[in-house]
Design goal:
It is built from 20 helices and 15 strands. The chain is α/β, with parallel strands linked by helices and 448 residues long. The chain folds into 2 domains: 3-208 and 376-425, 3-Layer(aba) Sandwich (Rossmann fold); 218-372, NAD(P)-binding Rossmann-like Domain (Rossmann fold). The longest helix has 24 residues, at 207-230.
Length: 448
């Protein structure tokens, strides 16, 4: 650890570093694709001389991504993208064992969260990474001189500069990588409104990310978080999965695998039809609220479970969220329906006793249940996401000056490399097209 790293870091306890290092290296064993990328980055130094601010979940898996970025020559600052997802021992190890600047504390309050956002902005990055677009949205508000729209901690930093300086503050940003569905939605809205300040690569939209990370990662880790948090038996439970995107598909599949009777709620007719043909019951939330035992939101939208839904729930119903932001559950609406609240009846499980006498249990404060109550996605699936993330960063740098202020997809060559390398690490080999087959697929002359 250098003096500069210590000065630019804010972590809970440096004495946790030893445990964190073990966790990081354990995860690294199950991330062979990222390790291959890191080995190449160390030789080629594609990120040399660049400053990077990354707003991500501070977990052991993320630690190995950040190690890869540093191996490529970048000077990296990592901050948390969720107050409850930080693993304090990992944060300590990154600072003290790997000389990486970290601003993240598990359970940090809103002011601390945005103080860390301000620190990431003050680092004056050339490249950013986001998981939810909080970092980029703050940069956009500042560039537009809309200081009333940013948190006071960010406003305090931005106010040090003149309006002209704020407008050009992020001119040296080459681009950004976005990791999650919610973030991509926000960024495409910025592009549509013409306020995006630099190119963004939608890593979440890569097949090597969403088909595996969102589906298998979210599916397993969400159920893991619920079970760790409550010790409930899923078999026989009626479980509502709100949203049937890639995350919802994974959660529904894993819940059914544990013996649950799964109900899907949707607003998209095609997704609802798919859920029905996959064998799940489909109904409106107003109906599902009356019969289900467990509710899981994974939509990326706000107020999916509202006051009237809480009021209709059975005594003992458990509610949680696995979407990026905690707004999927209308907790103010629940509080308005509540006679009394008992905090931490189990760690991070709150009991809301309604006016009608029924008890509702909210798991993980409505934040990402897989990270608030468990360890998040397993390293094997994050291996693909983070290898894609690292290589997308390299691509963005190589395209400097060629990309406009828009949201771009990950190049197919990156996805092919990640998939092929992952298969090889699993000992799996596949066929390849013959020249004749390739010619047939690229032509039009051959018919019936």
């Amino acid at each position: 650890m250098t003096t500069a790293t210590a000065a630019h870091s804010d972590i809970k306890d440096p004495n946790l570093a030893g445990v964190g290092k073990k966790r990081i290296l354990w995860a690294d064993q199950d991330m062979p694709v990222l390790a291959r990328v890191r080995e190449r980055f160390e030789k080629e130094q594609p990120l040399a001389g660049l400053r990077m601010s990354a707003c991500l979940h501070v977990t052991a898996e993320t630690a190995n991504l950040v190690r890869t970025l540093k191996a490529g020559g970048a000077d990296v600052m990592l901050i948390a993208s969720n107050p409850l997802s930080t693993q304090d021992d990992v944060a300590a190890s990154l600072v003290h064992d790997f000389d990486i600047k970290v601003n993240a504390i598990h359970g940090e309050d809103n002011n601390t969260y945005y103080k860390h956002i301000a620190a990431a902005l003050a680092f004056e990055p050339n490249i950013t990474m986001d998981d939810g677009a909080d970092l980029v949205s703050s940069m956009v508000f500042i560039a537009l001189d809309r200081l009333d729209d940013v948190h006071p901690m960010v406003r305090e930093w931005a106010a040090k500069f003149s309006a002209t300086e704020r407008k050009s503050k992020f001119d040296n940003v080459i681009g950004s990588m976005e990791e999650t569905t919610t973030g991509v939605i926000r960024l495409r809205a910025m592009e549509k409104d013409g306020v995006l300040q630099f190119p963004v690569i939608a890593v979440n939209d890569a097949a090597t990310k969403h088909m595996f990370d969102n589906r298998y990662g979210t599916g397993q880790s969400t159920l893991d978080g619920i079970i760790r948090g409550t010790n409930c038996l899923m078999a026989g439970k009626r479980v509502v999965v709100a949203g049937y995107g890639w995350c919802g598909k994974g959660v529904a599949s894993r819940a059914r695998g544990l013996g649950a009777q799964v109900i899907v709620t949707e607003v998209n007719a095609v997704a609802a039809l798919e859920a029905a043909m996959d064998g799940f019951a489909v109904m409106p939330m107003a109906e599902a609220a009356k019969v289900a035992d467990v509710f899981i939101t994974v939509t990326g939208n706000k107020h999916i479970v509202r006051r009237e839904h809480f009021a209709a729930m059975k005594d003992g119903a458990m509610v949680c969220n696995s979407g990026h932001f905690d707004v999927e559950l209308d907790l103010p609406g629940l509080q308005a329906e509540t006679a009394s609240i008992s905090r931490d009846v189990r760690p991070q499980v709150d009991e809301y006793k309604l006016h009608n006498g029924n008890r509702i249990y909210v798991i993980g404060q409505g934040r990402l249940v897989n990270l608030a109550m468990a360890e998040g996605h397993p390293p094997s699936v994050m291996d693909m996401s983070f290898a894609t993330q690292a290589m997308a960063t390299e691509y963005c740098i190589r395209q400097k000056g060629k990309l406009g202020k828009a949201v771009y997809t990950v190049p197919v060559e990156v996805e092919e490399y990640v998939a092929i390398t992952k298969l090889a690490s699993m000992g799996i080999h596949i066929d390849s097209l013959s020249d004749d087959q390739s010619k047939y697929l690229s032509g039009w002359e051959h018919g019936t």
